[in-house]
Amino acid sequence: xxxxxxxxxxxxxxxxxxxxxxxxxxxxxxxxxxxxxxxxxxxxxxxxxxxxxxxxxxxxxxxxxxxxxxxxxxxxxxxxxxxxxxxxxxxxxxxxxxxxxxxxxxxxxxxxxxxxxxxxxxxxxxxxxxxxxxxxxxxxxxxxxxxxxxxxxxxxxxxxxxxxxxxxxxxxxxxxxxxxxxxxxxxxxxxxxxxxxxxxxxxxxxxxxxxxxxxxxxxxxxxxxxxxxxxxxxxxxxxxxxxxxxxxxxxxxxxxxxxxxxxxxxxxxxxxxxxxxxxxxxxx
Length: 284
Hints:
Number of helices: 10
Order of helices and strands: HEHHEHEEHEEEHEEEHEEHHEHE
Radius of gyration: 19 Å
Helix content: 40-55%
Distance between the termini: 42 Å
């Protein structure tokens, strides 16, 4: 027997206690960034999700679609505009957001999961009142903050053996409109509503780094009590602040822990969940 065969067997043996630990538990994966654009990374993420599903882990996928929205806006001659890192969403942009997220991006993901052997179903935040929201602030346009997350339609899909794939558009409670919702925020709210074991945010960075220019300074574990000091010291800054805020809210609201994970690493989800080698930053 070759060393490679023995190595593969050792990897599977190492995964066993983690499979037992997470069997029947719910894991919410926020999917976006390069992992969504690169075909190689996309295939790796999809296969990870299918494998987790097949070993009895209840996986829920929440996705964004910023690059696809920008591409479609460009096609109609409309420039993308951002305020405080959020896409300014006027009525015309909201129509594009709804078409792209609830339509093309969602159904392409579902089709890929099904084609690769999964059993996925696409859901929009407006389906069965999954996400209800009110306007965040006028300066962002039709960007909403979630006031209620009713996960029953997701639970029903999970109970029937499906992988729910959720797009982040919400039904307005203060107006007859749909709202564009930040995908990190939506994933955190849904993880809380589902009483999930874990929330994983796939990003385009290694995790939280003490020195942003040195990946060797990765902080593998951060306790909530450490977060204010890390913000004060500039370790958590810029676009990472709202991501960490989502993680903190999720853990405080009952999610066991959250992980900021580098989606640029092939099979990062499997490495993080089913091996002894954690590769992201866990907030707990």
